[in-house]
Design goal:
Hypothetical Protein Aq_1857, Chain: A, four-stranded mixed β-sheet, three-stranded mixed β-sheet
C-alpha cells in the first residue's frame, strides 16, 4: 500500500521563502531538476508560461506552490532519493529565476529507507 504523505521532494524554509518571492515577482513558477548540462545539476526555477513539461518528465510533487519535475532518465538515477530543495549563497543558474539575487537553489538528497521505498507512491 502506498503512502501519499511521503513526499519525493521537499524544501527548506529558506527555499520556500525564495519561492514565495519569485512567485510574487513572476507569477506561477515551476522547477525542473537539471540533468547536468549547462548549470550542473541545479534545480531550475522557471515561470510556468516559459517552460513546457515534456512527455518524458516525471512529476515529483509540489514545494511552496511550485510543481517539481525531473527528466525520466535523471529520475531513474534518483528514484531511491528524496530531493530536498535548499538555498545557498552563490550565483543562480543562468536561466533560473533566482539568478542575480546572490543565492541559488541547490538540491540535497536523502536516500529513502527500505521501509519508505516499500510504501512510496509510484510515479507515472
Amino acid at each position: 500500500m502506498s503512502d501519499p504523505s511521503l513526499p519525493r521532494v521537499t524544501a527548506t524554509p529558506a527555499a520556500i521563502e525564495l519561492i514565495e518571492t519569485l512567485r510574487h515577482d513572476n507569477g506561477p513558477v515551476l522547477f525542473h531538476q537539471s540533468g547536468g548540462c549547462c548549470d550542473g545539476s541545479s534545480p531550475m526555477c522557471y515561470p510556468v508560461s516559459d517552460f513546457i513539461v515534456g512527455d518524458h518528465d516525471v512529476h515529483l510533487g509540489s514545494i511552496g506552490g511550485a510543481e517539481v519535475y525531473i527528466s525520466r532518465s535523471q529520475f531513474e538515477y534518483w528514484q531511491h532519493t528524496q530531493l530536498i530543495i535548499d538555498v545557498v549563497p552563490g550565483r543562480g543558474g543562468m536561466f533560473s529565476l533566482e539568478n542575480g539575487r546572490d543565492v541559488r537553489f541547490l538540491t540535497r538528497g536523502r536516500v529513502f529507507t527500505d521501509e519508505e521505498l516499500a510504501v512510496l507512491e509510484p510515479v507515472t
